[in-house]
Amino acid sequence: MNWQVTSSIYGGQSYSTAQREAYETVANALLEQAQAFSALSASWQTTALQLNRHRVSATMCSASYGSGTGSNMSSGIASANNANAVQHDSLPYSQLIEQCNEHAQQCTRVSEEFATMAHSLIRAHSLYAEAELAALRNVNAITSKAATIAPSHVAVLGGYLAVDGYTTKSKQEGASNFIHASDTVSWAHEGFVSGLASHLLLLMRIPRYGSAPVNAVASITAMLSAPFKNLTQGNTLCIREVQAQTDVVRSSHSVASGMENLRRLAEERLGTIELHSGLSYATIAVQRYRRADGTDGWLVLVPGTDGQEDSPFGWEQNVELMSDKSWQRKRADSLRLVNMAMSKAGIGKDDEVAIIGHSQGGIVAAAAAADLQDRYNITHVVTAGSPIANHPIPEQTWVTSIEIEDEVVASLDGATNPATPQWLTIRGQVSAAPGTTATSTEDDGAYIPEAGIPQSELTGALVANAPKQKEITHWLKYHQAAYAHASDQGSYAVTQHEQHFQEIIDGELLETHYYEGRMLQSTPPEALQWLAQPKVGIL
C-alpha cells in the first residue's frame, strides 16, 4: 500500500473580495454541473430499470430476449390460408438497457470530474478556510472545556474511541497497528491537551494564565526540571565547527529543496540513510548566499530531537522551548546552540535569515524569531510538525508552518495557528493511495518515487519510502508531501510565501557550515581536546 497527503491551506496572503467571489462563482458553477450530471446518471439508471421491467412484463417472445431485430410469429397466430399473416416486432431491450447503463456510468464520471475540479479549486484558493478554522476552533474549545472540568471522563471516552479505531482499522489493514489508536482521535488532540493543561493550572491555583495554558504549564515544569537536567546532563554547552566528508546539505532554491536538505541532515544520524558524511547528532547547518545586490542571505537548517544523553537537542530541552517566558526559552540548550552557531558563522544584524526546522528544530526556529530579534533579522521561518501556535513571533517575520492532522507533536501547543497574511499553515491529511507505486533511494540519499500510479487517480502527493502499514506521520517525508501537494494546487498564498523565502536565498551559495554541540558538566581535558578545532566556542 502507498500513502498520499492531501493538503488544506489556511492563512497567508489572500485575494481581494472581488477575486474571491469570482472563484466562488466558478466553484459553485462546477458543483451545480456535478449535481446535474449526477441527476442525469440517475435518470439513465431509472430508464434502464424501466426498460427491464417492460421486457419482463411483455408477451413471452424470443425477440425481446434476443437480438431484438423482429421475427414473423405466424405459427399459432395465423393459419397458412390467412393471406394477412400477423407480424410481431419487439424493441431491442438488451441493447437499450446496456446503452442506458453506459450513459449512466459516463455521466457519473463527468459528475465526479466536475466535483473534483470544484473541490480542488476550493482547496487551492482556501475559499472556505475561515469557516473550516472556525469549526476547528469550536471543536477545540468544546473539547478543552470538557477536559478542564472532567479530564478523567474525557480520557475514558477518548480511550474507548482509540481502542475501537485501533481494532477496526487494524482489521482492515490485516495486522495489528497501534498508530490507529492515535489517529482515530486526532480531532481531539489539541483540545484535550489544552483542557488538561488548564485543569493542572486550576489544581495549582493559578487561574490567570492567559490564552496559552500549555505554555504556562511548560514554564512551571521547566522551573522544576531545568535544575535536574543541568545536574544530570550538565549546563556547559560545547560547540565546534565540523566538516562533512560528503555533500549533505546542498544549495537550496526553494522551501521544498530546503526541506529535502534538512531531511538528509537529520536522517543520517538515525540510520535511515547512509551518506558517509561523518556528521553526528546535534549538528545543524548554516549557509551563506551572495545575492545579486551584493548582500548576504542566510539559511539555517535545524533538525529535531535526537534524544542522546549529552545532546542539546534532548527531550528535556523541549519543555523550556515551550515556555511562555522569553528568558526560559533563551536558556534552552538547542536555542543556545543555534544562537552561537549563527554568531560564529558571521551573520550580521541586518542580514536576512531564513530558518527551517523539524519538530524541536521548528520550535527553535519560532523561539529564535521571537526572542533573538535584537541580534538577528530573521525574516522567514519554516516549521514542520512543530507546536508553535502560541510563540510570540513578530508580525514582520513570515511563518510557513506545515502540520499533519493525525500527528500528536504538532498538537502539543493545544491551539490552532494564527491565520494572518504572514502566517501560512498547511495541514496535510494522510490517506491510502490507489494502486502500487514503489520508491527507491538513490546513492546520494534522495527519495525517488517510481512510476505506477497515474497522477489523475491521486488526490494528493505521494509519500516517499512509506511502508505498507500506516506509521507515525511525524516523519519529515510526510511534511514534504504536504508541501508538495499545497504547491501543486497553485495556491496564491503558498506562492507568495514561496517567493518571499526564495528572495532571502536568491543568490550563489558561498559556504556551508556544520556546527555540532555537546552538553558537559564542566570542561575536562577531553572536552578541551574535542574543542581544539577552528571556530569553536563555549556558551
Automatic annotation (TrEMBL):
It comes from the Bacteria. One of its GO terms (molecular function) is hydrolase activity, acting on ester bonds. InterPro entries: AB_hydrolase_fold, PGAP1-ab_dom-like. Residues 348-401 form the GPI inositol-deacylase PGAP1-like alpha/beta domain. This is GPI inositol-deacylase PGAP1-like alpha/beta domain-containing protein. It comes from Bifidobacterium goeldii.
